[in-house]
Fold each of these.
Amino acid sequence: MYREGRAENTVVTLAPGVTVGGDTVVVIGGPCSVESEEQILSAARIVKEAGGMALRGGAFKPRSSPYSFQGMGKKGLALLATAGRETGLPIVTEAMDAEGAEQVAEVAACIQIGARNMQNYSLLKTVGRMRTPVMLKRGMAATINDLLLSAEYILAEGNENVILCERGVRSFDPAARNMLDLTAIPIVHRLSHLPIIADPSHGTGLRDKVIPMARAAVAAGADGVLIEVHPEPDRALSDGAQSLYPDQFAQLVGELRAVAAAIGRNIPPAKTGTA
Amino acid sequence: MYREGRAENTVVTLAPGVTVGGDTVVVIGGPCSVESEEQILSAARIVKEAGGMALRGGAFKPRSSPYSFQGMGKKGLALLATAGRETGLPIVTEAMDAEGAEQVAEVAACIQIGARNMQNYSLLKTVGRMRTPVMLKRGMAATINDLLLSAEYILAEGNENVILCERGVRSFDPAARNMLDLTAIPIVHRLSHLPIIADPSHGTGLRDKVIPMARAAVAAGADGVLIEVHPEPDRALSDGAQSLYPDQFAQLVGELRAVAAAIGRNIPPAKTGTA
Amino acid sequence: MYREGRAENTVVTLAPGVTVGGDTVVVIGGPCSVESEEQILSAARIVKEAGGMALRGGAFKPRSSPYSFQGMGKKGLALLATAGRETGLPIVTEAMDAEGAEQVAEVAACIQIGARNMQNYSLLKTVGRMRTPVMLKRGMAATINDLLLSAEYILAEGNENVILCERGVRSFDPAARNMLDLTAIPIVHRLSHLPIIADPSHGTGLRDKVIPMARAAVAAGADGVLIEVHPEPDRALSDGAQSLYPDQFAQLVGELRAVAAAIGRNIPPAKTGTA
Amino acid sequence: MYREGRAENTVVTLAPGVTVGGDTVVVIGGPCSVESEEQILSAARIVKEAGGMALRGGAFKPRSSPYSFQGMGKKGLALLATAGRETGLPIVTEAMDAEGAEQVAEVAACIQIGARNMQNYSLLKTVGRMRTPVMLKRGMAATINDLLLSAEYILAEGNENVILCERGVRSFDPAARNMLDLTAIPIVHRLSHLPIIADPSHGTGLRDKVIPMARAAVAAGADGVLIEVHPEPDRALSDGAQSLYPDQFAQLVGELRAVAAAIGRNIPPAKTGTA
């Protein structure tokens, strides 16, 4: 993943016209978890109408406690597929093991590897042998070098479509859920040809910090942002406290568009109509 | 320093027309250390011409090793005063003890309390009894709450002119000198009425990361940025590796102006002529 | 894993007379990686003769870089089995995925889940459905509560034979490879009925710190220690810098025996003869 | 402070027969704060009777909030002097600034520099020009190298009687108040000729973790331990939750004596009678 011998940046295509790593800053939105057909369809429409370019939503959820909601599994994937078809948005969703990766690849444009699995090398090799793009999230105490080395596990198996994601690291300060390390963005851009996006939702864990930190991520040069938005955050089964309300998400995209323009990048206007 | 019972923001005036905490985003530039009359005058002119609004430069330097350059002391303060008079820029410089604070207050518009002294309560009380504005830098492992409580030591003595400064905290990742915690900016704005600026020079320790992270700080809502710039960074006695070259500083101010405008704030154009 | 409703401690049996969680402090020794038949047999004899009670050694190695030595795999497991048969020492070795766990269970008395996989929940569930004891290492930025919740993934599937392992966490100080958090030992003993051992080899990464920190772990109440020892540390394929020389390992067991006795626990004398 | 050119260890004398850095492991006990004559006299007797060799107690208290109890100041010093005279115990107490250091030196055998002032270089230079021994506590995010460099500020001014103190650093885990980094002990012993003690009271913040972690500190090679004990912890004005009950302190000294003996060091039996 290092730049040596490779000057040009990797650009990962999620769907026709939706690329990560070029001039466009990609906004990926959606709920933490798929909870029901109504919920994910509603979320997808909110994302689409506000100008989001891809839909996120978890069907397999890695939760610290075995007694927390673990996601809808295969049924959740089917609902994501439905929401993708209806809105035309490509799907980004997490896989936690080899079997799940195969299932995810059937419906998703991008397989997410979560922070907890960043050094699950068996899983990295598995998705490295696939052709679906992979979004690799930084581990909670992973150095930037660790992140790049984990990406190399995927690249070394032949899958060059890797997007990195800064999502905050563990810190001593309980003021936020994690410490969003935005300096990782220019550091990765210097060291690697891979694109990097930021996840200010997990990176802060605080709804009212998501908009300013998403703006900051774009200003720092992020190739995209991953944002949690839920039709009804107060009823979310997971991560409700960091999910934006629908109108906040629309406001966010507008603010990001202005910041992107200020640094010579762009976020296209929302497309009207469905796929 | 908490918002309770105080809705309006504190606005700190450094000089006529130079305020921290209002709509304007203040750019404070200068070298890590005052090294000579020629160096500080040159630096001051670079800052002024590029649109910087205040001059930073250390006369008293807290260095981890007693054998590192410790600053020019009182002579350095005199040179700062000269540079301030010539350019009309207000001076921001650090004090390390009660005696130094008195000396600094004679020439500076703002007394800087460094990260290592953030919990030097005797010093905080001393500057709290003065009327000169104080810039309080976050300690290397201070929580945001610790920072606010330290500010309260100053406020409680009667000095309400306090500017907070995020300058990066210690982390496990050697990729950067510190981890710049930009989320501190919206968190402080929510909890406190005090303004907060960011120091991406110490926050990253890497020259080519200063511009993107300064942009990110402004996008996150910072009330100003503190930037190290040196006429000849390669010959600097301290912090050369994180000091901008003069042309980079001018580029920085331009980029920050665009980002500030994108979020409804402003950085005024550079004034021509001297004070 | 919490104590609620369960007063007595879990005692995990690795072999007849080798239990973790009772009065005896278990010393588990061996190389980082299995490298050859000669190497692992030699290491096993060193461990046995010094009074070690179980043999560790990696066949599947999770390495940050895909280009580092990845272990001998199944062949390494076969060599471990040979070394175990010859010395009578039960085997502790790591599994990185479901397939590997099945293979490990055929030869090992205890399946190690490494720090990088502490939140690989699919793997935790897999070993939870097995009956072989599991040693679960704390993740590099896992809180003690995270560690206990990960253990619960195993217990909830029915496998109650779980040993926890403190192996150091990431810190800001490069003076050691990790920061060994020995306070985790009494904290776990208060919160949970599970035994906990310490790994001062990974916890410090520094050979000459292993003996004092192993003593400290025992004094803090650890139910065992996991120690890297290699017949020829200077020729080790991985972790040579933290592996003890054979005579240091023998010295270590003697010192630990004295400390254990001082706090009312014991380490039995070395048994002469082979299995 | 580095070993280069200096093979023998520094041994600091607190009182006739009370040295830090030799074979004896020094137990220093007392309350967080001096609260009243009755309290400090009672605490001193508890320490003396249990076999403690020096009395700690704060008269000047650095507190994160200006509204917390700040200590009794000069009056507290006078009470410490009384307690010292009555029991014959040398006094260890903190100074926060130059003026306080002079006052402390009049009654104390050792001036403590707290973690928050570890890089208050003006204060370090001040106590460096004095002859009273200094105990320098590690800062909350100070590397071991930072600690040694801060010690050098004292040594460079001429005061060679410096004792280092590991008291825990900031970490991501809220399970304990700080993370006690006992590996600092053998690292300091390797790098420096200065003695180092441990403070498991601040290092854990949890009363029932103090005894096992004090044992661990001694097993790791600490030259002493600093322990908070209060006649009535539940009524303490500061740090009550980490202060031992009197009988726990007596138990602690006994356990430490056994561990010290196990590693070839010693803690002398309690002396009967007063000074």
Amino acid sequence: MGRNGEHFFSRTSRKEEGRLLLLPEAESCRRLDRVRSAMLSAGIRAGLVSGNASKFYLTGRIFVGWILVTQDSVTYYVRRPVELEGDNVVYVRKPEEIDFGCLADGELGLELDCATYSSIERLSAAAGIKVPGDLSKVLRKARSVKTDMEIEMIERSGKMQEGVYRRIPGLYAAGMSDIEFQIEIERLSRLSGCLGQFRIAGDSMELFMGNVLAGDNADSPTPYDFAMGGAGVDPSLPVGADGTVIAGGMTVMVDVNGNYTGYMTDMTRVYRVGSIDSLAEKAHRCSMDILRALEKSGVPGAKASEMYEEAESIVKERGLHAYFMGHRQHAGFIGHGVGIEINEAPVIAPRSRDVLEVGNVIAIEPKFVIPGTGAVGVENTYVVTCDGLRCLTNLPEEITELL
Amino acid sequence: MGRNGEHFFSRTSRKEEGRLLLLPEAESCRRLDRVRSAMLSAGIRAGLVSGNASKFYLTGRIFVGWILVTQDSVTYYVRRPVELEGDNVVYVRKPEEIDFGCLADGELGLELDCATYSSIERLSAAAGIKVPGDLSKVLRKARSVKTDMEIEMIERSGKMQEGVYRRIPGLYAAGMSDIEFQIEIERLSRLSGCLGQFRIAGDSMELFMGNVLAGDNADSPTPYDFAMGGAGVDPSLPVGADGTVIAGGMTVMVDVNGNYTGYMTDMTRVYRVGSIDSLAEKAHRCSMDILRALEKSGVPGAKASEMYEEAESIVKERGLHAYFMGHRQHAGFIGHGVGIEINEAPVIAPRSRDVLEVGNVIAIEPKFVIPGTGAVGVENTYVVTCDGLRCLTNLPEEITELL
């Protein structure tokens, strides 16, 4: 079994290991300020962060415990691991040991969209309140505008992911099934530094490492709220590759995990074997044209719903509506915020009320399913700048032939 | 890049795809009966199943939606995918369309340990109740005793996992880091049919594909509630391999994903390079002896807490207590139920009130961390029978040398 020397892993510095806060002081303050400002608007006096994604946001690491944020304090309550050090680090065994202070109903924000009902009930009781405030919306808002350091980390993931995608055609061998192809992409991704973990907000979506769709499997409806489907290889995980042998006339859409830094990029490219239906070529060009249009219109202040409409109108103009975002089953969005989780704000969808801000990072994925051929379309991750969208996943977008 | 022909994937039959219920009728009834009986004991008149794991339990597939179970009815409310068919299948767009009937506080069981606070609040409002009953405990109880079909599926996962573990020594090459070794194990697992998805109940534990621990990295505390730790390669996922180069005198503990059928086995074996400290050899033998003892005492009616005590007393007798279940940080259990999720009931821990029943499936993992050497110990998955524990992960348990 061959080894691949080009990996990016290095051991965590033992010196660093003991500090709870792995972010530079100024960066930590910047993120706390974003959360505090959103708390103020929401009338939340104290916010208790419990979810892994937001703990990582505020500290640069995952630990088991809670972070209590008020306008003038922050306390890190840690259950595990042992031996973490730093200002305002307090070890506790259970949430009843947290010092909430004196709070009225609605004043304590908890992660209502993230934590289980049982855990919220327990935290509320520990704080002596009956009605928790909604910290999920606050954190979603705060995290939707990335700091420069976050953008740098996402950009780094993008570069790693580009490197993997560049080598994808070399992984193909004639006669491979979609899942065999995917497994080689998984391995190359992992050897290139991909962390594997694919963080999804909410409690119902599941995906392992990504989605490789060959031919008509792209038209199999999935239960999950992803842009594309696929039957999967087992009914316990009904999404993605299903064992289809890749053959002439098919497209193969590759949309795999871009988590290389704790922050991810989301990127899709399409491959083909032999020549494919001209309708698929046309739809793929349409996807590229939509991206070019949205790259310009995606300026601060742009309404997410209008960006969706702009994309849809291009699709309708070209008579491709029946294939847009699926064929047997259609997805209801073309873009989504990306960062620590794959489904952050803003959402580019018909009824979205989101408005673009400088520092949003969004993946845009106008895709099509062409019966008899497969999925086509491009997905890039962008950061919103004053001049429009800046691409963080730079690689040729044309359909690449697998030889 | 070489291909491996020995994969087990086949396309879902298109005929089957359309039926919601993928379980045989009798099997579906058997599982519903288990849930209904636990509902009766808990005073729950109607149970609304919302989590993926329990939906898979009751139907053999994952879908987005809910299952409403009463003593004399079952209704499958489906949001996605489109086109599912069968008795009592009702398509809905939102939970407000569910026909809950007339229920008082406490009579509607919801998955309080699994679903988010927001979703439980919304479901409660839709049902016109203020206080939901706890369906999580009911489902945990029902699912803790496996049916023959479930045991057969777990057994099948065990056989696939055995096949992978048998080939693990062949994946090693001198100079490899732990993460490189792990990536080759991941690839072999996936090519052998491993589904990748690693289902964990609760909202805070994360793991990608498994844990490969070399040398002193085994002593790095992790925040997560796993038996063993490891620093991981990034603070966003602080568990497992950390880039340690595998070298002479080290042990390498392999504990990777056994989900091949939607049901998983959990299995750990240890490898070494060259000769290792005799203390590590001694601790490994102790682990094997504990398993032999518990295989006998693990009969129906056995108290989980007493099984833990039995293990602990063997450890203390041999003076190995400082290394048991970790060294810098100790895990508080030695075994756990396994099935659709990795952390089911019963739990083998000091304060567990669980009592073994015929049909429980449990992983037992008495492990040790020896400073300067690494982790040792064996983990097997067992089914509880009248005669004690029957092993579902049969492979030699001795430490295997990597050459």
